[in-house]
Description:
Elements: H1 27-33, H2 36-40, E1 48-52, E2 61-66, E3 73-78, E4 85-90, E5 95-100, E6 109-115, E7 124-129, E8 140-146, E9 163-164, E10 169-174, E11 182-187, E12 194-198, E13 209-214, E14 224-225, E15 227-232, E16 246-249, E17 255-259, E18 264-268, E19 285-287, E20 297-300, E21 306-310, E22 317-322
Amino acid sequence: MRNKLLMLGVILLGIFSASYSFSFDRKDITKKTTNLLQNCSEGFQSPEIRANLEDKDINESSGVVASRLNPGVYWTHNDSGDGPFIYAFDLAGKKKGVWKVKGAQALDWEDIAIGPGPKPGKSYLYTGDIGDNLRLRAELTIYQFLEPKVSQEDANVLKSNAKSTKKANIIRLKYPDGVYDAEALLIHPKSGDLYIITKPLRPSTGEVARVYKASAPLSTNSAITMTFITTLALPLQDTDQKKINGADISPNGQQVALSDYDRGYEICLPSGETNFDNIWKQPLQPLELNVRRQGESICYRLDGNALLTTSEGVNQPLAEILRKGIAK
């Protein structure tokens, strides 16, 4: 993410109560991901470019996530400078639509995640207004809203006439021990727990990322003070490019994918382990990413057997990284 010259402060648009029930667990996702653990340690193939994103309004893709409601569709958003818009595209890079998030503002959106929420059985998107290069923000803002259903006609909608999502719930977060910049937001697909991974200022000096958690249900009544979980040092952390700038939890909730500006990583929960927080104690397995202009996003494919990356810039490549043993 480009350094910001000015932070405008945190904009709060009202507070809503939320009572959660976490039953979102699509049978097709479970069926497709039951064998992932035995493949996890085998690693990934070399990345392949699937397409270039055709939507010219996507000019700083800063987060990406696979849709649960619309199989084969992916959601992204721009970095700071855009409004509160989300964009849909497919694996061929084709535009699938644009939506304006109702009740949201976009100061410094850095990542997007997906998971359960207040309504049982419904898929929710979460956009993270969590960037803070100057480390000035007392609170972070997460917008939680029902995932839109994409129709064929949506591909023809212009940004100037963007559809509106359902009104977003506003979740406010605080760190318990200071202020940090962050670009990685994760939602566990079963529990709904929220994680933020901070972005170190200078990794080459030994500063490492920090993992924070907000346990579900995520209240909208007042700011949530997150819990510090652990530090997270990247392998070969010898340059200041080793900053975590994107993350995702696999649809089966057993793996975490991370990216920095040079490469990717996967962390795997041991077979039989039921406490997801123990995943942060496991070794990070490096994986090759495609060369990106300024890559800040990574996500799992819906079946969990591949990773997808995007990059900032117009008409940037969409890359897919398959697990070893998965046919192309």
